[in-house]
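Reading a protein record of the kind used here takes little practice once its layout is understood. Each number in the token line that follows is a code from a learned vocabulary of backbone shapes. One such record is shown here in full, so that the layout can be seen directly:
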Amino acid sequence: MEYEFLFVVEGVSAEDDHVVGTVFDEFDGLLATTRGRRLLAVSESGDHPVDAAHRLVARLRAALPTMRLVRLDPDLVGIADIAERTGRSRQNVAQWVNGERHAVAGRPFPAPEGTVGRSLVWRWAEVNRWLEHIGASDGVARPSREDSLIVDLMLRQWQDQLDDGRPLLKVIAASDDRTEDRGAVMREVERLVRRPEALRQVAALPRNEPHRLVIVCAVLLDRLEDVLHRLGPHDVSGVLAVKTSEDMVHLTSIASVPLPGTLPITGFGLTGEATVGDLVLLQSDGTVAPSTPLALV
């Protein structure tokens, strides 16, 4: 799903044609200065808003290394702003606010965020979500208050990681009757990446996004097509992590499409129906080198 974000940013100028052009051409976004603040309006796809923000931070670092994302702007709106954005009159909006018009059962108009001068203001994301129920929203998904809080808390950590030359890691696993076993793999991976030398080794694995790395934790009985599903529609490459012995986690670079340097698993007689164990067996007997990046197609 695609989410729209409005960030307060530093380290770039809205007067810089290169920066503004990059934001527009590569991100279909807009960088502008409003009341002394530089605001970046940009969208990104993800499984949820925090995942989309995680991907966006990595992509922006690659394209605009000097840009620093400070926080999400709450995009506060008053009655006049809501009227302008929805094409309704101020009187109509006031009736929504007071519950006199288009009252939605069990969904009162959002509580105001506060006041500016003598006027109440609301978070546009919350207002827009309420407007969905009366068919008047703009159709754009934005992070909720809770998601925005998480993103704001994580922004500094994510960017500090990139400052240190470390990729942003997303460690994921499926949930079913083998969740406990995958959890053991996940914990081992998390211990592994805490060691600088191990993290450098992981970071050196081939991938299409240099500043972001998705690690899919699996068990030997998982099908390769399920691993591909976990990689998701938004990530082209990542790393397959599987525990092959009591104390060892094996890492293999994987891709959902044939990328330069990858070999398709079909070249080794495997299909999506094959299991992770089938792949590990081929790596163990030397049919395919463990360091070979593989396309799961």
